[in-house]
Input
Amino acid sequence: MNNNLRHALINARLQPTDVAAHLAVDPKTVYRWLKGRIPYPRHRWAIADLLQVEEAELWPEVPQGQRALNDELQAIYPHRWAVPRATWRHLFQSATCEIGILAYSGLFLAEDTGLIRLLANKAKAGVRVRVLLGDPNAPAVAARGIDETIGPEVMAARVQNALNLYQPLTGINNAEIRRHQTVLYNSIYRADAELLVNSHAYGTPAAQAPVMHLRVVEEQAAAATYLDSFERVWASATACAAEG
Output
């Protein structure tokens, strides 16, 4: 019996079915975890994120080497689709100062109406929200479409669709959308000092590529390099005007 997990759920006022819904797993799986079965690492990290506790508090028996890899590298997911939806939502929900999205389309987030509403509410609460998407007409967007084997026209359409879906953010204080023409080697999703970095691999759609969960711990470390990359792209991007 995992009493630590049970007590954490009670403190968070969540039911096992709530956890199952957030992680997109069968409720029976959550009950097995409560009975003592240890989840896979990606599920442990997602549950710890959801409950806002340290993984070691929930599973102290897990060896240190199987937990967060170090203070900066919190987790590595083999594919973007393997990152639980709860982790994405918690990432942005936890922001108190800064949210940043750098991608070609970020369509998987743009299609989540609840997430768009969350970003809008964060901006209204004073959090700076910056969204950087590709320019549909940029050569880099066309090249990425070829890289992903979906074709330049499909990629441009995906980017334009995302730009349309992110439109509710325009006109809100603290929120801004820009278009870039930069060749991206990764997509960056940032909330304060936490980052999810989705690498780009030739011939592989972004959803199939790995994701690193990084935390900014010092100025010269890897996470800071990605933040600097974000700022460079932002500085060269073009602001999107609100649609009339």
